[in-house]
């Protein structure tokens, strides 16, 4: 799979087009931190991909596919003059998500994938957070201590028509109402400062790939 277009797409998004994206070392102190500082890395490292695994979960994908169809019908045929119809490539993004202490296997084998019921309150309320930058999600990555490995998802997310927020709003429990509407809402929210999207509905995401990687100095 490493030579496939699909693999190279995920790799380039994860490492950057030049392959030189750096992550912050999560574990401060000790020999690793000493080596990083003396190598001029200032506590950063270039990640080394160990595996990119494609996730197959028909139940979760079926829910996601159904929601995608609903969003296409809702947003591509908008008759409201205040909101132009969206193109399909505007409604979906590939984004990163770290699961912290939760084993990703428990997520991709579940019936809901990433589950809002287990989400914590964040800068944009209780939602499922996705980052445009893999370096951001690294700070929330799942760490396998025995193997010195990190993991994060590269998910496809149905952002639909999103509401940008220049400042965080911790009171959010769902996207806000569309301007001038008493019933219709935005589909997701976007934190402009942190550059991440937030959804408040499980069916708007599919954890398509699990990226396993390591810090080369921690082999």
TrEMBL record:
PROSITE patterns according to UniProt: PARP_CATALYTIC (PS51059)
Domain PARP catalytic: 1-219
GO MF terms held by the record: NAD+ poly-ADP-ribosyltransferase activity; NAD+-protein mono-ADP-ribosyltransferase activity
SUPFAM superfamilies noted in UniProt: ADP-ribosylation (SSF56399)
Keywords, sorted A to Z: Glycosyltransferase, NAD, Transferase
EC number: 2.4.2.-
One GO cellular component, as annotated: nucleus
PANTHER family linked: POLY [ADP-RIBOSE] POLYMERASE
Name the UniProt record assigns to this protein: Poly [ADP-ribose] polymerase
